[in-house]
């Protein structure tokens, strides 16, 4: 079975789209699938990361002005037909998919915007919103099966392993692959300024982080901080941490399945609605938007929540209850295989 992924990463876009596609590709590979990735070679692309994980990359030009141009460039790279196209890209939808159906029998689109018409057989949106079904009702074709909510979250296999014990005073910092606003440095300065006994931190940044060298130099002088770059053991760090300070997006569901309380900063507009709802449910604390953050504010929030163990326990338990143990990536793969075997759902 041949599967084609169309997704991008860049310094400005971040790595989340590519990383969750890699998660799905590894899971599909276990069923016997052969997966290729079609990606634009933008500044900060992750083609080398994709190849290092055993998948072929079909390179696309950096500048593609329209869905039609993107589809034409993609089709020019294809030498065979695919059973499934997995599309994870905010700029691509109906026009792209209609052209790709010449080579791809089924299409699954991963999205969370619900703001345009889709031509797909499966639509995956792992975000949790009270009006999830209604958001997509006017955009999807009649035959499309929507996979909505964190029970369909694409989580790597490591997150389904037994959890370690959360360590008191251990903080995890993670603001995504690129962290354009450099919130990581603010968090490091906040933790250093706390001067609390027994507090340590794991700092996670992506390969695309523009401040990599500065952050490396800063953490090197702080003995209670450990820097991790493009790490593939995030579950281990989450299982060990007592509290996470980071961004929204896919990390919400990694935190939830790890029962990890989170202080969350939204770094993009499309993260706000889900983060606000999770805050309302008691599954995290929404600190606000990136532009409003400061090292002093981070320090105040960390100091307060680290002094509230009962509150952290409650937050972690609430978060853990949002993703059933048998759900997530295995459920997505099961649904895909049923669709491929039985035709349109």
Automatic annotation (TrEMBL):
It comes from the Bacteria. One of its GO terms (molecular function) is hydrolase activity. The active site is at 17 (proton acceptor). Substrate binds at residues 156, 254. The keyword Hydrolase applies. The keyword Hydrolase applies. Keywords: Hydrolase. This is UDP-2,4-diacetamido-2,4,6-trideoxy-beta-L-altropyranose hydrolase. It comes from Rheinheimera pacifica.
